[in-house]
TrEMBL record:
<dbReference type="InterPro" id="IPR050282">
    <property type="entry name" value="Cycloisomerase_2"/>
</dbReference>
<dbReference type="InterPro" id="IPR011048">
    <property type="entry name" value="Haem_d1_sf"/>
</dbReference>
<dbReference type="InterPro" id="IPR015943">
    <property type="entry name" value="WD40/YVTN_repeat-like_dom_sf"/>
</dbReference>
<protein>
    <submittedName>
        <fullName>PTS family maltose glucose porter, IIABC component</fullName>
    </submittedName>
</protein>
<comment type="similarity">
    <text>Belongs to the cycloisomerase 2 family.</text>
</comment>
<dbReference type="GO" id="GO:0005829">
    <property type="term" value="C:cytosol"/>
</dbReference>
<dbReference type="InterPro" id="IPR019405">
    <property type="entry name" value="Lactonase_7-beta_prop"/>
</dbReference>
<dbReference type="Pfam" id="PF10282">
    <property type="entry name" value="Lactonase"/>
</dbReference>
<dbReference type="GO" id="GO:0017057">
    <property type="term" value="F:6-phosphogluconolactonase activity"/>
</dbReference>
Length: 344
């Protein structure tokens, strides 16, 4: 097993790094990071077999997606799709249907691509978010900011818009065109960033970057009815410094939710109650600063968080019984990390 970490390349980073995983349980360790792909600003990326789809920001005028294919132990760039302006902030994937979804925070554009086994990209459709319901915070007043674009449990598409405080739902029709289906509106200033769904597909949990909150919502993916269930803070009640909630993940059994806090520099762990409300279990240090992303292996036993501002990562053991995290390795050197992917 290996861990891949990419991020910004403003200082020392050259792109995407690979760290070998060794040992098990309390003796598990990540070895020294090796640069395997040189690419500018791979702040988010996805892997499908021998293909890696990475955000690329090669210059100040263009940004987009580059595709790298593993050949004879080395990754080679096989495709690049660039557009004027900033690069996307998020990449989603459907490996069975060979589809990619991108959300561009700065341009407001969400896009759907198809790809073949060699990594060739074909743009299927786009939609541009407009300033319909902008929130009051400084990060929102300049326009729409789609920050996430991926699939729902029923196979529709969902986008979180930080600028508009909304969750937008779409379908990709038989002509491979995006059709807007519904909108869920959060409280003003919530700053919708990322979203996860319950195991039964009847609830979603959306992380608000600007509010440092998680909103629990019951919804029906046939009638598009929404019910606001509850909202929870990801930071302590007495925290008075800046914080931005970032990544959110839910365990495969649907029992635990995890969210990273950039500022409080922690991972907050919630238990999911039978009625889908949440119970705070743990708030644990990331042993660094600005944890934009974290991820786990297929068994969800090991968790790695990347700390962007302190150029390090931390490895935890996760209990499947009580959901708690136990740190087992600190100060893993990795430059400017913002995206973590486990690879077999």
């Amino acid at each position: 097993m290996k861990v891949l970490i990419g991020g910004y390349t403003k200082h020392d980073s050259k792109g995407i790094y690979e760290l070998d995983f060794s040992g098990e349980n309390e003796t598990a360790r990540l070895d020294e990071a090796k640069n395997i792909i040189e690419v500018s600003g791979p702040t988010y990326f996805r892997k499908d077999g021998n293909l890696i789809f990475a955000i690329n920001k090669p210059n100040n005028n263009e940004g987009g997606i580059s595709v790298f294919k593993l050949n004879n132990g080395q990754y080679e760039e096989v495709e690049t799709y660039l557009t004027p302006g900033s690069s996307p902030a998020y990449v989603g994937i459907n490996r069975e249907r060979h589809l990619l979804y991108t959300a561009n925070y700065h341009t407001g554009i969400i896009s759907v691509f198809s790809y073949d086994e060699n990594g060739k990209l074909t743009l299927l459709d786009t939609d541009t978010h407009t300033a319909k319901t902008l929130g009051p915070r400084p990060e929102q007043v300049d326009g729409a900011h789609p920050h996430f674009f991926d699939e729902t449990p029923a196979g529709n598409l969902v986008c979180c818009d930080l600028g508009n405080d909304t969750v937008e739902f779409y379908r990709l029709n038989d002509e491979n065109k995006l059709e807007h289906l519904a909108t869920y509106k959060n409280e003003a200033g919530f700053g919708d960033r990322h979203i996860v769904f319950s195991k039964d597909g009847n609830y979603f949990y959306v992380a608000g970057e600007l509010s440092s909150k998680i909103n629990v919502v019951k919804f029906n993916e046939n009638t598009w009815e929404f019910e606001d269930i509850a909202t929870y803070s990801t930071i302590p009640v007495d925290w008075d410094k800046h914080n931005g909630a970032a990544a959110i993940r839910i365990s495969n059994d649907g029992r635990f939710i995890y969210v990273s806090n950039r500022g409080n520099d922690s991972i907050t762990v919630f238990a999911v109650n039978e009625d889908h409300t949440l119970k705070l279990l743990q708030r644990i240090s990331v042993f660094g600063e600005f944890p934009r992303d974290f991820n786990w292996d297929d068994s969800e036993k090991y968790v790695v968080v990347a700390n962007q501002n302190t150029n390090n990562a931390t490895l935890y053991l996760r209990s499947s019984e009580d959901g708690m995290l136990t740190p087992i390795q600190h100060d893993i050197e990795i430059p400017e990390g913002t995206c973590v992917v486990f690879s077999n």
